[in-house]
Specification:
2 copies of one chain form a homodimer. By secondary structure, the first copy, chain A, is α/β, with parallel strands linked by helices. Chain A has 11 helices and 18 strands. Chain A has 2 domains: 208 residues, Alpha-Beta Complex (Quinone Oxidoreductase, Chain A, domain 1); 131 residues, 3-Layer(aba) Sandwich (Rossmann fold), CATH 3.40.50. Chain A is 24% helix and 27% strand. In chain A, strands 3, 4, 5, 8, 9, 17 and 18 form a 7-stranded mixed beta sheet that branches. In chain A, strands 12-11-10-13-14-16 form a 6-stranded parallel beta sheet, covered by helices on one side. In chain A, strand 10, helix 5 and strand 11 form a beta-alpha-beta unit.
Chain lengths: 346, 346
């Protein structure tokens, strides 16, 4: 099956239309007619070659929402006509401790990324900036009614990336959660933590997006460029979700944690960070990291979002606006996620 | 009350006999006739001036076991004749969130250290290398029968320092715990984790103390000087207790943690450590720190040790051997804790 897509032909080159081949629908596969594909910052890192050589041409996109148009003989989880989603992975070994424990993203043989990865059959995966995709049914999520399709797409990466650590470290009533950075990930963290019942504070470089932050569910909003923020909020938070991938003064942020508090990075700066161990010992604090989430947890997150009627804040674009959108993502000029309407690819 | 003690007269000077004044027994105070005082590495750091200027002369010692010989009018928790212990703190505000939560060591006004600290009445505290000490009854622990007095003394610091993170991060049956370094702290971590039912592995620079480690309760013993250790044990542990205060290759040790695993430092190197955030994100891992433990938890630890009939491995010395003992601690030539028999001070 040959389908329209948008691909980066080489590292750092603008994306352009391409026709790619999708595999035959296997016994456990689902064919999805894609409706929306979110643009994640990691799409840009990948096609720019920031994360090493890639199997170009690369069709990015791992925030996919669409409708099932065909299923394999063994598929029972999904039916033709269902609205479904695909996130950052499309396969894993299914047998290791981590896969069996529901953490397929930590598959000991390596999860298979939704694009630019080698699938278990040896083929190269291609992502969601496309009209159709064929995915193993076990890695396909149900997108419940009650979430707009475009608003649902970013949940498959930005949503689960922030939902997983909020759940793992117990965000909920009586807990004080800070979110560092109000971008694609940060705005989801604010919405989710608020919906979980936590008291939410945004820590952003400036107060530029303060009004937005409060509208999205934050109780407080502070500028990290103001040194008094770090005095005023000392030892305050149970959990800090750091969505910023740039280097930060880790010790300063750790000082904002109460006893037993945890600072979780969901992004990783390319260079190592420096940490003064006294910042941890002085409050039995933890510095942690978290990467997306397993399939079952991703489904739980989608159901949670439907129940709480929340989705991402999106700006829907046509496929031919993708290069411009990349520029704007790099300039932090998006509130808060671009989503490609893939019907513009036909 | 004037009592015999051993003090460092100035930074880096050998300890020598001194006579010090102990305060009158107040309404909530307990007078303790000291029997044993353990020698902790931090005693040496303090008197050497490694941790900044000190109020010399300094009588070190925060691993104290003795017998109550007098109580104040309001004391109900302890009686004359009871065997008791004093650890790293002798006071705190008692009113802040952390004190009320049982974490007096994280008192927001600052806990009062057992020596070289300013007590809430403005006097300077003096530690356990002494025949007697007067301590607020709320900071005095009961030492249950069934633990030898000398073996109990190090529990008040080395014991609680390792017990607290083992409890906080769930050491127990089905959990794999590694202990980095087999010294005063490490040997207690091995004994305690084993008694809690965890599978225990020692990670030591060499295999020199392997026989000891296995005798103390370790199931496995590996040399960290052998690079294959880090391959062989990759992603293995739920919890790593790092008792080594020197710089370590944090990323290498984080690679030994399973998904959701935690590496806890109980010592702090003076310079910051470098951490590659991918080491954490790649397994939803945490890097944490922990400092001693609250009074209630310290009592729980002593009761646990009595129940499991365990204490520290000690070498009992006379007070006039303390300078020699300091040299041997610095040379890691002690298995595993020196304890001063304070009856040699009279």
């Amino acid at each position: 099956m040959r389908v329209n897509a948008y691909a980066a032909p080489a590292a750092g080159q603008p994306l352009a239309p391409i026709v790619i081949e999708r595999r035959e629908v296997g016994a456990n596969d689902v064919l999805i007619e894609i409706q929306y594909a979110g643009i994640c910052h990691s799409d840009i890192h990948t096609v720019n070659g920031d994360w090493g050589p890639q199997p170009f041409p690369v069709v990015p996109g791992h925030e996919i929402v669409g409708v099932v148009t065909e299923i394999g003989a063994d598929v029972t989880r999904h039916s033709v006509g269902d609205r479904v989603g695909v996130g950052c992975m499309v396969n894993s070994c299914g047998e290791c401790t981590n896969c069996r424990g529901g953490d397929e993203q930590y598959c000991q043989k390596g999860m298979v990324g939704t694009y630019a990865a080698t699938d278990r059959d040896g083929t190269t995966t291609q992502g969601g900036y496309s009209t159709h995709v064929v995915v193993d049914a076990d890695y396909v999520l149900s997108v419940p009614d009650g979430i707009d399709g475009a608003a649902a797409a970013p949940l498959l990466c930005a949503g689960i990336t922030t939902y997983a650590p909020l759940r793992r470290w117990g965000a909920g009533p009586g807990k004080k959660v800070a979110v560092v950075g109000l971008g694609g990930l940060g705005h989801m963290a604010v919405k989710l933590a608020h919906a979980m019942g936590a008291e939410v504070t945004v820590l952003s470089q400036s107060l530029k997006k303060q009004e937005d932050g409060l509208r999205l569910g934050a109780d407080d909003y502070y500028a990290t460029s103001d040194p008094s923020t770090f005095e005023h909020l000392a030892s305050r938070f149970d959990l800090i979700i750091n969505t910023v991938s740039a280097r930060i003064d880790l010790d300063a942020y750790l000082g904002l944690l109460a006893v037993d508090g945890t600072l979780v990075n969901v992004g990783a700066p390319p260079e190592p960070l420096s940490v003064n161990v006294f910042s941890l010992i002085g409050g039995r604090r933890s510095f942690a990291g978290s990467m997306i989430g397993g399939i079952a947890l991703t489904q739980e997150m989608l159901d949670f979002c439907a129940e709480h009627e929340l989705g991402a804040e999106v700006e829907v674009i046509a496929a031919d606006q993708v290069n411009e959108a990349y520029e704007r993502v790099l300039a932090s000029d998006v509130r808060y996620r671009f989503v490609i309407d893939t019907s513009t690819l036909v």
